[in-house]
Write a structure and sequence with these properties.
The structure holds 2 protein chains of 2 kinds.
Chain A: H1 28-59, H2 61-71, H3 74-101, E1 105-106, E2 109-110, H4 113-137
Antiparallel strand pairs in A: 1-2
Helix pairs in contact in A: 1-2, 1-3, 3-4
Chain B: H1 6-34, H2 45-53, H3 55-83, H4 90-113
Classes of the chains: A mainly alpha, B mainly alpha.
Amino acid sequence: MSADPHYTLYHPRWYRRRMSVWWWLHNRAYAFFVLREITSVFVAFTALLYLWQIRALIQGPQAYERFLARLKTPLFLTLDTVAFLFVLFHAITWFNLTPKAMVVRMGGTRVPDWAIIGVNYAAWIVLSGAVAFALLRG
Amino acid sequence: MLKRITPLLWLLFSTGGTVAAFFLPIHLLLTGLAFPLGWLEAPRYESLHRLLMHPVTRLYLFVLVSLPLFHWAHRFRYTLYDGLQLKHLTVLIAVLCYGTALAGTAVAAYLLWNIP
């Protein structure tokens, strides 16, 4: 808490106990929640990796070769493995949460959760296949 | 200002999260693991460059980079608030997070727009 609390009309004086920064380690559900939140860091990492690849492709064949060589270093293999696991975790938790964020009704009845989740996983497989096809065709 | 654009930020968060969930795992699996480890042969420069020339690819790559960055910005902002209890730094954190996402978007737009 800051030294200068902002008093509001209906909470003239709040007393809050100090919480440890590690509050989320005490409970498995909290740890799961924080782990899910941290996936965003690896989502950003992957986006930047792609930005780097685009730049290398624009600069020319030598830059692209350097990019490929850099990805083979232990540092990047480790980073990419960890990032892949986190991005996978993001995808799975994201799809499983879709029915909670989006209620679909058809003919007056609510589409069951498993159907919405199933459509997401099916689309995931199709889209991943399309990306792999586009990249590997050449 | 931050309050007024909050709905937009949530929208960017959720579309970015969806794009990230659908597309990033396969890209990372191929580019980050399968190609460097030699499970599959990395695409040749010519074929990727030809792919990059297509306007649809450029639009796709722009979305692939930009929206997940906004997803990160929004989620990471709240991770910092809750995880590290930095509520008093609201404005600074917001500027840094969304600023980074905006910068990444600008770089992506610049690169993809100016391909010779």
